[in-house]
Structures are given as C-alpha cells and as structure tokens.
Amino acid sequence: MLEDISEDDLDKYIDGCPDSHDFMRGKQGLNQPGHTIDNWRKQHITGTTNSITTDLDYANQPIYTKNVSAGDPLYFVRPQLQYGIMGNQVRWIYTNPNTDSDRRCNYYNATYPFLIAVHRFVQVQTPMSRAGDRDIAQFTIDLSDHRSHGYGQGSYVVQYLWRGYFDCIDVDVFDSGTPVIDIGGIPLDPNDPKWNKVDHCQFEEVQAVFGNCMEIVTDASSVLTQCANDRNGNCGGVNVVPLWLPGDVYPLFANRVGIPWDFQSTMMFGGGCSYGQFATLGKNTMVGYGLLPRLPNNTHASYSVTDDPEDPLFYSTCFILKPLFKFALSVSSSPNASITYVPPPWAFATRCVDCATWQLAQDTDIIPRWALPQERNCRNCEAEPSSATASLALSIISRGQKCDGSWNGATTWYYGAPNPQCAAVRCVKTLVLVGTGNAITPEQCVAKAKLDPDCSEHVQHNSAQGSACECWTKTNPVCCGTCKPIDYVFQNYRYNVYTTALQTGDSTCANGVLSKDNANCCPKSCGTWCPSKPTFQVNFQPKTYLPPYGWAVDDGTKYAKKTNTYAQAYDTYGWTCDRSDAAEDRDPAASTAKNNNGTSYHATYVKTDSTATCSGTATWNLLIGANGTSVDMEVHVLYSRSGQQLSGCTLNQSPNFDNNRRTLAQNDMAWVVRSLTVTGGTLTWSGSANNGCGAIAALQIFPSTGVPAVDCQTLPGQCCPHFLDLGNRPCTTHQPPCSM
Fold first, then answer.
1. Which of 98, 299, 466, 728 could form a disulfide with 94 if both were Cys (CB 3.0 to 4.6 A apart)?
2. pLDDT confidence of residue 355
3. Which range is least confidently modeled, 275-279, 450-454, 500-504?
4. What is the pLDDT of residue 348?
5. In this predicted model, what pLDDT tens digit does every residue of 307-334 receive, in sequence order?
6. Are strands 552-554 and 536-540 parallel, antiparallel or unpaired?
7. % helix / strand / coil in the chain, to the nearest 5?
8. DSSP character for 324?
9. How does DSSP classify residue 136?
10. What b/e sequence results for 238-257 when a residue is b if at least 16 CB atoms lie within 10 Å of its CB, and e otherwise?
11. Is residue 150 very low, low, confident or very high in pLDDT (cuts 50, 70, 90)?
C-alpha cells in the first residue's frame, strides 16, 4: 500500500485520532516504569555541546532546555551503527513549544486498515540548523487495537516521508515478549544467496565494468560469479540487458541499449564490453556484466526500476549485491509465522506481459525476456493455471550418442549418408556463448539452440568435457533430414542428445510403456514391454580409472568377493588368473576427462591375450547363486576393441559373437544380447585371442522378459539396442531375439 498512500491520507488518519491513542497526550499502558510522556518526545542529537544551548528560534526563544547523557531518565540508548554514525552521542531536550505540534497516533482506522500508526514531527527551524544534526525518537509497534482484525506476529514496514525524501525499513514483530535488538545482524552463511534479483531494473551511470560482457541464455550465474570474484571487492551489481530493444520501446529511446560498449574492464585480466563480439547475435540475445554502480543519494538510488513498457529499462534485470549481514532472528523462523507470497505484477498501464514469461520470471535464477502481446487484451496471469511447459525442460533423448553423421568435423558422413552430394554438407552448427570462453553447460546449450533460427530441436552436448555444444541444423533438410542418434563411434560416450522442445513430462508413464519393476518408462513404439533396471552391470577398465556412474568395476583381478559399492546384487566375480596388466583404454587422450567425469564403458576393456601371469584361454566368472541355482536372465556383452572379430567369444559355453564374424574397425563397437538360464550358480564368459575374441568391454544382466531385454533410452521410434547392424532400423523391421 506504500505507493498509494498520500500525505493527505496520513493527515486524515491523524485527524481521526483521539488523544487517548496519542503517545504525546494520553495513550496508556505503554510507558515503561519510571517513564513519562516526555520519553516519547523527539530529541535532538549532535556530536558537539558547543554553544548549542544558545540556539534560538526565529522568535528568539530557546530551542533546548538541556543536554542529557547516560543515566538520565530521559536518555535512551541507541545501539552503535556501522561506521560509528548516530551512536551514543550528545542528546538535547527540546522545549515544549517545539514538540507540542507533534502527533504520535496509534489506533485502528477502518478507512486505512493497513496503517498501524502515524507519527508526525514538526521540523524545528533555527538560524543555526546544521546539516549534520538530526532528531531521534523512540517507536513501538503496538497491535492492541489491530489484533481483532487479524494482525499479529509478522513482518511490518516503517516508512519515512519528508516532501520528496523517503525511505523504508523492514521490521519483524515477535510475540515472544523477548526484546530483540539486532542492528546490522550476523555474517551471512557461505551458502546464503548473495544477490537480490530485481526485474524491470537497471544500474544506470555505470562507473566501471568488471570482467567480460557475457551472453546470457538461462541464468546469470556465470556473470554473478565473475562479479563476486572481483579481487578488489568493488563489483557491486550486475546488469542483464537486451542486446536489441523490442519494438514496444518508445522510438526515441530505441537506441538506448544499456551496454557500456568499449568500456574496458578494471579487472586484472582485461575484458569489458566489445560491440564487435556481439554484433552478429540475434534480437533475443541478453548480455550481462558486472559493474561499479553510481553512488546513491537522497534523490536517487544506485539503480532504477520502471513499470513503463516503453522504457528500455523495463526489459532489463539487475542483481543487487546483498549486505554481508543478516538478522539473527526472523519471522519465517518462528513457529507462529505466516508468510504470504505476493506475486510480481503482470499488468502495466494498458499492457500486460505474456503469462508464460511472467511465470518463468518468478524463478529467482531465470532471466526473463519480457514479451507483451500485440493485442491489448490483458489476461489475469494469477488466475490462469500454472503451465507445466513454462520452464525449459532439460530432456535427454539419447545418452552417450550423437546424431548420425555429425562427427569428424561434420564434413564427412561415416554412416547413412543419403546421397553422394551430401558428403561435404555440414549438418551441425557449433554453438558458443560470447564472453564465457569455451565452457557451456547442457542447460545453456539447449537454451542457446532454442534461440538460434538455424537449429532444429535436437542438440548435442559434450558431457565429459563440458565445452562442446552443437545443434542439428534445419537449413538443408534434403541432405540432413532429422537427427538420428546412434552409438556407432566409441568417442560418442562423451555426448548426449537433447531436445529443445518444451516437455510436459510423463511422471506416471501414462503415454508410454512402464517396465515391470516401474524403473523405466519407454515410448509406446517399443510395443508392450520395457526393460527393467539391470540387476548387475560391470565395466572392464584399468584400476586407476573412475567407474561410470552406477557400474561395478572389473580391472582384471582374480575371482574374489569385491568391495566396490556398485556391485549391487552380485559382488563375487573375476578372472581365473590375474589379468590386471591386460586392462587398457583405447582412447588414452581422453583419460583426463574420464577421470573427472567417470569412465566410458565404450573405450576401456580387459584383453584376453596371453600375458606373463596368465596363459591360455581367459575365463571370467560371476557368482549368481548357490550351486544348482536356476536363474533366467538376459545378458548384454559389449565388444569394442579395434580389430576384434568376435569369433571365439562364448557365454556359458554358447557362442557370443556376431553371426557374420564381423571384424571391428577402429570406430566400431557391438553389443551382443543372449537369453539364457544359469543353472550351475555361475555365469561364465570366455574369450580366446587366437580365435578372434580379443577383449571384453562391459556386461549387463537384466531380468528375463521372455524376449531379450533392450534399452529403449526414451528414444521415440527406436527400441532396439544400439547394435552395429541395427543402428538405423525401426522397431517394426526386426524380430526377436534382436541379437547380432
């Protein structure tokens, strides 16, 4: 209600105040023992005692009666504030004529039910007025007349008004009865938010820029971190502003983009805002930068906020650095607290913002791109149901895969090229964020692609390195078609394929096929079944590598009970002899990335070649249960060693290889799936290098489903595993057992 209250309203509240509710005239029950009405009179405070007793008003009458100090009944202690301002300085008691016109009213007024009290102090005019002097007074928030109208413990606002000057203070009122004086508060916890996000806001009159101007596509975390890391601690705020102002801005203001172009950064390593870096970016681009704001004074703050859609500032967002202290107590931490969330406004004069944008903007991290529909028919955003598609879903449609034909610089198609003239067509576009170096998160990658008119809805992100983003283009549909994620090249484990389409979600799997164990939801294209969660999965790898998330590790050591936490249902496995020196990585250049982000089961394996510690046919065993146990299962085995022919591989003495005896090339891999019943209590895999079975890369066990379990990977239209010879075949063209 603050912006709607006028000085005339405050006068009317005071005019209706009976003396019995005026602290200056007769309000009872609030004066502490030994206190009188004099304790509610204003006092003058100054840092000097020199000749102030001789101050006279314009009628040559004395202004003060005396000065008081600690111990005097009229002296009240004011806690020392930061920087030493207004602490326990000299107090002067006004003569009665200089306080008689003051009114301090506290009562319930039905016309102004939101006003708890109004205090009006008359300024004392004196020829000796000093700009550095000030008056002080004691205040209380007395709710005795308001409790019956629903007021009680909670958050209140004290507002100060004097002509064009005004200020507000937040106050938390407790019912505990325990006095709380908490000036300046306690230091913020390191995990506390350090920024206030303010929409329709901008720091104007930027004094300095800190670090780079950055392209912002999701949240402002990168530029906020950069500002917070300013070595000198001078970066006091962040602007996020549009690169191009929308057409709703008043034409004469259309060139007032809030970016300080060619402003050199004051940080040690340079930076700043260079127009040349951003000139080619589109109209939806947002730019963020850290800054030193102008100093606030009595007539303006360090930043400006507007509710005018024709003002360029309307489309900006600013982040204000919070003080480094907080109050030790708050109403929100009290058991009787009742906090009401007040949504931000959606209507501005005759215009309304887009409701989906309005919903999205309420996220404290998201940077909104304000849209005002061209028609001026406003919708009540608060009355509309919240849309599940208001936020951008980070939906992986394929893990560890890339779009078919998008590797090797995307200049040559290794697989599935539609026709020869497309061999040199580039079907992917590399996406980077200006000002952020090469780093780009999956969320930023998806958001960047959604803003790019050349991009289709499919995006590839390098999840291992965290710095590669490509979108599948829609500019050459004849050659490129649509993205078809496949797992044909072993380096693909670093990539995931995302969709930029807004997802509605399917938490109950109402639109798909639910696995028997309720662990997975697959597309309806997979028929009437969906794979359950693996009961066991093991990656064969060197012992110095981290395992892929959720996988057990076999590093070539002998058969024994294993202690790693990924073993799940089965924890006893290994080789008939020590083969730890035969664990290799065929992609050693990426070992750093794998150590930081988890090993790929595509690129590592244990060889079956003869070594000094183990000769003859190598055998790997997994304890399934007691001898005589009979268990039905599906077993997936991955082969990825270059030059491997797969002949000679066996699983429980049955062939486990490509029916065509295909030899794996450098970029090949193959999954082989078998349905079997283990009756002897042990699952055994063996391979002979002399017969072409040179290594094993990974193994998974699934519960038996009557047909081989396959991984749907939530990829519509493709429910077979990623086999070498079935990578591009739709589900309708294969028959079980769907193996090689």
1. 98
2. 82
3. 500-504
4. 82
5. 898 999 999 999 988 766 666 555 554 4
6. parallel
7. 15, 25, 60
8. S
9. E
10. bbbbbbebbeebeeeeeeeb
11. confident
